[in-house]
Amino acid sequence: MDGVVLIPLETRDGEEEVERVIQAVVDNVLWQMSSDRKTTALKQLQGHMWRAAYENGRLKGEFFKDVVPAVRKWKEAGRKVYIYSSGSVEAQKLLFGNSTEGDILELFDGHFDTKIGPKVDSESYQRIAASIGCATNNILFLTDVTQEADAAEEADMHVAVVVRPGNAGLTDDEKSYYRLITSFSELFLPSSA
């Protein structure tokens, strides 16, 4: 991999050597983040680091203004809402439990992270559906990453690509192929029977 920072396997005794290994670990973590790596280990490390910041109030989860009202409506309509994120389940719970909207964890029926599998692998979506006891074709998956949309669609899920400021741009083909939304309020979900 281009630019990867290796962590020494063998170390010698001494404080200087310990510092060299620590610096290699820090450099490797920074490389993973700058490369937008979604490794489970990195996400778990970030989750541990964020825990202290959330718990002492230095960090608050922020959402686009349409998100929480829409999720509340979906819940009131009897819909189940799950999170599947490259962020660890712990990080998800910190984000939603310590948000500018307060603790909104009760809005979610469950959380999934890359332990279930990569978000670009259709089998991950099949495993999620099996674990919640729902057919894949009865699930709507929202994402801002078209490779994830492809994997979910391959698993026979319904998909909408969320277009937000700061997201990667879409090609003309992607814009015409996917159902695009710019706000969660665009999704009307009838109550379950």
Keywords for this entry:
5 strands; cytoplasm; 193 residues; HAD-like_sf; Enolase-ppase_E1; 7 helices; three-stranded parallel beta sheet; methionine biosynthesis; nucleus; single chain; globular; mainly alpha
Could you walk me through the main structural features you see in this protein, from its secondary elements to its overall organization?
InterPro entries: Enolase-ppase_E1, HAD-like_sf, HAD-SF_hydro_IA, HAD_sf. It comes from Python bivittatus. This is Enolase-phosphatase E1 isoform X2. With 193 residues, the chain is mostly helical. The chain has 7 helices and 5 strands. It has helices at 15-34, 40-55, 67-76, 89-97, 122-132, 146-154, 172-177, and strands at residues 82-84, 110-112, 140-143, 158-162, 180-181. The strands form 2 sheets. Strands 3-4-5 form a 3-stranded parallel sheet, with helices on one face. Strands 1-2 form a two-stranded parallel ribbon. Helix 2 (40-55) runs parallel beside helix 4 (89-97) and helix 5 (122-132) crosses helix 6 (146-154). The longest helix has 20 residues, at 15-34. It is globular and about 60 Å long. 16% of the residues are buried. The mean pLDDT is 91.
Q: Helices, strands, pairings?
A:
Elements: H1 15-34, H2 40-55, H3 67-76, E1 82-84, H4 89-97, E2 110-112, H5 122-132, E3 140-143, H6 146-154, E4 158-162, H7 172-177, E5 180-181
Parallel strand pairs: 1-2, 3-4, 4-5
Helix pairs in contact: 2-4, 5-6
